[in-house]
Write a structure and sequence with these properties.
- By secondary structure, this protein is mainly α.
- The protein has eleven helices and two strands, in the order ααααααββααααα.
- The chain has a two-stranded antiparallel sheet with strand order 1-2.
- InterPro entries: Integral_membrane_TerC, Integral_membrane_TerC_rswitch.
- It is found in: Membrane.
- Keywords: Membrane, Transmembrane, Transmembrane helix.
- It holds the Pfam family TerC.
């Protein structure tokens, strides 16, 4: 059990807040749609920060805790990539100007991080008092994995407004047009909110709904609230740049949901086995964190390669089909009259 002094929590939260504040400053200073190169550099920066933090945990607290952080961070980061599909739909649904999408994402991510912190605190307290929740979390993750596997590859993703978003739109007077990046404006002397605020609420609350899956998943890898919170923070901090980096590649990750299903099912079984072992069931194995980390990394790597291979073959088939159709159109028509 990590016994951390208060100043470590304060320093960690201060560091995360400083990074997010600097990121927000960059977005507010020059609203624009980042290039592929810019997004790549920032994603590498945030990944590097997470790796350095994980190595620090390994050096100071031991390889077991370091492995728990890396397993949790990789899982949360992978689930965040899946969330980007819905973020793309939200941006299209609300017709967000491309130069202001960065601001929407950064504010939505901050909102999601604050709400997740509350979820994590409640989850940690609940698990400490009611260890039978492991069975519930494990069963829920297995059910979620089953739902992901049942999804058809041709099924179109859809965005549906959640209750929080509907309440905001119903209670708060809003205009239908954007006014730059402003969240509010005046119409006929009355203060109203713009669609910019509505879409920020949509991104933040939608990400919170995804946390219903991800929070039990990471508690299946580590019971340390400090590691759960920091893994979530590092997974969310680079999500804005990841949106622009892989936005054009999302359609090629056709088997991502299958890989995530395998990961969630594995973590669900791990939770149930740990609960059984804790309650004296001798045959229930304890799965080491090294095995968990290996299963997660290998599964996601296979899923990515499989997805890219499938997408490439589909693109080649489409090109060959178009060329065949063009040759048929260009072929001379034979005169069958005598």
């Amino acid at each position: 059990m990590l016994d951390l002094p208060v100043w470590v929590w304060i320093a960690t939260m201060g560091g995360i807040a400083a990074v997010i504040a600097f990121d927000f400053y960059l977005v507010a200073r020059k609203p624009h749609e980042p290039s592929f190169r810019e997004s790549l550099y920032w994603v590498l920066f945030y990944v590097g920060l997470a790796v350095l933090f994980g190595l620090g945990i390994t050096f100071l607290a031991g390889p077991s805790y370091g492995g728990e952080f890396f397993a949790g961070w990789i899982t949360e980061y992978s689930l965040s990539v899946d969330n980007l599909f819905v973020f793309v739909l939200i941006m299209a649904r609300f017709a967000v100007p491309r130069e202001y999408r960065q601001k929407v994402l950064i504010v939505g991510i901050v909102l999601a991080l604050l709400l997740r912190a509350v979820f994590i605190a409640l989850g940690a307290q609940a698990i400490a008092r009611f260890d039978w929740l492991f069975y519930l979390f494990g069963a829920f993750l297995i059910y979620t994995a089953w739902k992901l596997l049942r999804q058809e590859e041709t099924e179109e993703a859809e965005f549906s407004e959640n209750a929080a978003l509907r309440a905001v739109k119903k209670v708060v007077p809003a205009t239908t047009t954007y006014h730059g990046a402003a969240l509010t404006t005046r119409v006929d002397g009355r203060r109203v909110v713009t669609p910019m605020l509505i879409v920020m609420v949509a991104v933040g609350t939608t990400d919170l709904l995804f946390a219903v899956d991800s929070i039990p998943a990471i508690f299946g890898l580590t019971k340390e609230p400090y590691l759960v919170l920091t893994a979530n923070a590092f997974a969310l901090m680079g999500l804005r740049q990841l949106f622009f980096l892989v936005g054009g590649l999302l359609d090629r990750l056709v088997h991502l949901s299958k890989g995530l299903a395998v990961v969630l099912a594995f973590i669900g079984l791990k939770l149930i086995f740990e609960a059984l072992h804790h309650h004296g069931v001798s045959w229930a194995p304890e799965i080491p964190i090294v095995v968990s980390l290996g299963v997660i990394v290998v599964t996601l790597a296979i899923t990515t390669v499989w997805s890219l291979h499938t997408s490439r073959r589909a693109a080649q088939s489409a090109v060959e089909g178009a060329e065949s159709a063009q040759r048929s159109e260009d072929a001379p028509v034979k005169d069958t009259q005598p």
